[in-house]
Design a protein that fits this description.
single chain; 172 residues; mainly alpha; two-stranded antiparallel sheet
Length: 172
């Protein structure tokens, strides 16, 4: 399955923030993630960092959902909490693209809208699948599965190999 990479910012940022919340929240790392995904004005105050941490815990739900209906329900909750309406924008010389919050909103509101809207668009493109949480015990990573077959179970080959070795040793 081919994905429109123009629509990947939201789900990839959502995965990054959900993973960061699971690993141990760090305001500088969160701001770096916002910068990496080109969220305007990514600096976070202490209060904004706390708001974004709470949001990031909620972002885990669609990644951990066990089926399409649960994934869609979790994303719908995020959309309800984060978006007011959709806007077409062409800021900074970019081609037309969707925003799910007003341009003048702060970085937290924009991040909520980017992640909720991006997850919704990705769910449409992927038929409600391809969001995952690593199956390795105690691994906090969430991921967007863009693999060819869409059956990824681990965040990385390292986690997959670790689990394979663990299963092998427990069978001996």
């Amino acid at each position: 399955m081919q994905f429109n990479h123009d629509n990947m910012t939201g789900p990839l940022l959502a995965g990054e923030l959900a993973s960061l919340a699971g690993r141990g929240w760090d305001t500088q790392a969160a701001a770096a993630a916002l910068h990496k995904f080109e969220v305007r004005d990514p600096a976070l105050s202490r209060a904004q960092s706390h708001q974004l941490l709470e949001w990031s815990h909620g972002l885990r739900e669609p990644f951990e959902a066990g089926d399409v209906e649960s994934t869609c329900a979790a994303i719908n909750c995020l959309l309800e909490a984060a978006t007011s309406r959709a806007f077409l924008s062409t800021h900074d010389g970019m081609k037309p693209h969707l925003h799910f919050t007003a341009d003048h909103d702060d970085a937290v509101a924009r991040t909520k809208a980017i992640t909720a809207g991006g997850l919704a668009i990705f769910a449409v493109e992927s038929a409600g699948g391809r969001l995952g949480a690593c199956n390795r015990h105690n691994c906090p990573e969430a991921f967007v599965d863009t693999s060819r077959n869409g059956r990824r179970a681990y965040c990385s080959a390292r986690c997959g190999n670790y689990e394979a070795v663990r299963r092998h040793r427990s069978a001996i």
